[in-house]
Design brief:
UDP-galactose 4-epimerase, domain 1, 39% helix, 10 helices, alpha/beta, binds nicotinamide-adenine-dinucleotide, 18% strand
């Protein structure tokens, strides 16, 4: 299949490209590289440097790719930044999403996979979170993604674009050649590993009085390879609409469990400090992923803590300056 991967220079997108190429697909990456890295793109993929905020350029890029399917990863993804600059998030995530949908419609593309997020649920009423749970995002990042989901559903009904929407919880891990290189880095596992690599600074655990077993917040982590493989299964099954699906393991890990695993896997001690809870951080977020498991016979077999942390640690050790090397 010919597949467009937007955000193919980013963390998850670049690993999607790698796995798509390995599976024999022909890939075009659309990215403005504002937050991604040309060096992360697999050499077999075609790169089109294009900003999704520009509708005409996006239409041209999509038309020229002559694609059968779109995987849409490109986005701004930092919650605190979205609170400071909501317009930027609506412009890139929602406006850019609209430009891409219009371009796909005009190019006759009927398979569309969207990266979405657990942030669309806001503070959950019950766990695990089912896809039908109320959508009450509490920040502009989550709002921008929820609006994009709604636009895609409308385009799917109106224009017959078969769609899959994947709501990710926490994504971790690396392949041998590709990993997480964000600036700033905000995700727990890479922050912990970089603290060890740098050999300076402190690692802060925010909140120790949550209503969880050890008092620290609990999240649902999935290995990036398992996550991406669900997307590849989806484009192959999108001769009918699949709708929205959570991607997680349904077994959460606490921040303390992650810290313990990081110390075990690396054989090093983290310099830990304790801080107060961060505003808007729920005690636990755990996915009900039974729909994805049933639809694709999906089983996140790489998503043990040791595999996620171990693969990320190997990548960081081999690439201490990320893609700058
Ligand atoms: N990483 C996670 O744990 C996580 C969790 C939930 C959801 N998600 C979603 O997964 C997707 C990928 O996340 P990631 O961690 O790989 O992010 P990332 O920041 O590493 O990659 C995003 C990519 O999009 C590109 N991009 C940004 N604005 C663009 C624009 N206007 N035009 C073209 N390209 C643009 C960036 O240059 C970058 O390469 C995002 O949609 C994100 O919301 C990620």
């Amino acid at each position: 299949m010919r597949v467009i991967v937007t955000g193919g220079g980013g963390y998850i997108g670049s690993i999607a490209v790698e796995r798509l190429v390995k599976a024999g697909h022909n890939v075009t990456v659309i990215d403005n590289f504002a937050r991604g890295h040309p060096a992360s793109v697999h050499p077999s993929a075609t790169i089109v440097e294009c900003d999704l905020r520009h509708g005409a350029a996006t239409s041209t890029a999509v038309r020229c790719a002559q694609a059968d399917a779109v995987m849409h990863f490109a986005a701004l993804t930092l919650v605190p930044e979205s609170v400071r600059e909501p317009g930027a998030y609506f412009e890139t995530n929602t406006g850019g999403g609209l430009h891409l949908l219009e371009a796909a419609r005009k190019a006759g593309i009927t398979r569309f996979v969207l990266s979405s997020t657990a942030s669309v649920y806001g503070e959950p009423e019950s766990l695990p979170i089912h896809e039908d749970a109320p959508k009450r995002p509490i920040n502009p990042y989550g709002q921008s993604k929820w609006m994009t989901e709604q636009m895609l559903s409308t385009y799917a009904d109106r224009y017959g674009i078969n769609h899959a929407i994947f709501r990710y919880f926490n994504v971790a891990g690396a392949t041998k050649d590709r990993g997480e290189d964000h600036d700033p880095e905000t995700h727990l596992i890479p922050v912990a590993l970089k603290t060890l690599l740098d050999g300076s600074g402190q690692f802060t655990i925010f909140g120790t009085d949550y209503d969880t077993e050890d008092g620290t917040a609990v999240r649902d982590y999935v290995h990036v390879i398992d996550l991406v493989d669900a997307h590849i299964a989806a484009i192959e099954q999108l001769d009918q609409p699949l709708g929205a699906m959570n991607l997680g393991t349904a077994s959460g890990f606490s921040v303390q469990q992650i810290v313990d695993a990081v110390e075990r896997v690396t054989g090093q001690s983290l310099p830990i400090t304790y801080g107060p809870r961060r505003e808007g951080d729920p005690a636990a977020l755990i996915a009900d992923s039974s729909k994805a498991r049933e639809t694709f016979e999906w089983s996140p077999g790489n998503s043990t803590l040791d595999q996620m942390i171990g693969s990320a640690w190997e990548w960081f050790q081999a690439n201490p300056r990320g893609y700058k090397d």
